[in-house]
Design brief:
By secondary structure, this protein is α+β, with helices and mostly antiparallel strands. 46% of the residues lie in helices and 14% in strands. The chain has 2 helices and 5 strands. The protein has helices at residues 37-59, 64-85, and strands at residues 3-4, 11-12, 23-25, 32-35, 89-91. A hairpin with a 6-residue loop joins strand 1 and strand 2 (11-12). It is elongated and about 55 Å long. The two termini are 23 Å apart.
């Protein structure tokens, strides 16, 4: 999916991975943009799932922690893919128009 600026409809190259809640500018019109709330929250959920997977894999001693680490790792990859695949850019501040 090609991203476009909501202000000037110019093409954008932007990657949300690791940059959730970041604000940035359009390269054409220099107006402020930000990621959509869905993109942001998928990224935050992915970060939390990564922490759970890593913590369970490293610190877990109970037999069920291996299953927890695997499940959290799979969900982390899914949320990462969804965050990138469903990425949207909105105007900042979120203005109505």
């Amino acid at each position: 999916m090609r991203l476009r600026c909501p202000h000037c409809n110019g093409p954008l190259k932007a990657n949300p991975l690791g940059k959730w809640f970041a604000r940035f500018q359009c390269g054409h019109c220099k107006r402020a943009l930000q990621w959509s709330p869905l993109t942001n929250w998928l990224g935050v959920a992915g970060s939390a799932l990564f922490f759970v997977a890593a913590y369970a894999a490293v610190m877990g001693r109970a037999p069920w922690t291996e299953a927890l680490a695997i499940a959290a790792g799979v969900l982390w990859l899914l949320s990462l893919a969804l965050s990138y695949g469903l990425r949207r850019i909105i105007k900042f501040p979120a203005e109505k128009s």
